[in-house]
Design brief:
116 residues; 5 helices; mainly alpha
């Protein structure tokens, strides 16, 4: 893997873990945002768990390119769904941008990992 891939990998690990912690804590601002997206509060632990698993996959990806690519593809799917969910409810650009930016980062990570 090249340096760009590793930088994106570390950034995605940090974002996934940080976001998962927020999902497990369920602050009111997050609950309000999820209500707009029509995502039940009970699902936040599941979404947090997915992000913890993704972070673990990214960590294992440091020693396995296949794991890195698989995790990258899964993150592309996750953040494509997240971006689509924001778009479906006509959420603001400000609220949609983080999911879209992480989609782009996941795509770039996957491409740079495959390219070696």
């Amino acid at each position: 893997m090249n340096i760009a891939s590793k930088i994106l990998q570390v950034l995605l690990i940090i974002v996934c873990v940080g976001s998962a912690v927020g999902y497990f804590r369920k602050p009111q601002k997050l609950l309000d945002s999820m209500a707009i997206l029509k995502i039940p509060a009970e699902r936040l632990s599941l979404l947090g768990g997915i992000k913890i698993i993704a972070a673990a996959g990214l960590i294992l990806g440091f020693s396995s390119v296949r794991m890195a690519v698989l995790t990258g593809v899964c993150l592309v799917i996750y953040f494509a769904i997240a971006t689509g969910t924001h778009t479906r409810v006509k959420d603001s650009v400000k609220n949609t941008f983080p999911a879209f930016a992480l989609l782009v980062m996941s795509i770039l990570f996957t491409i740079t990992t495959i390219a070696k």
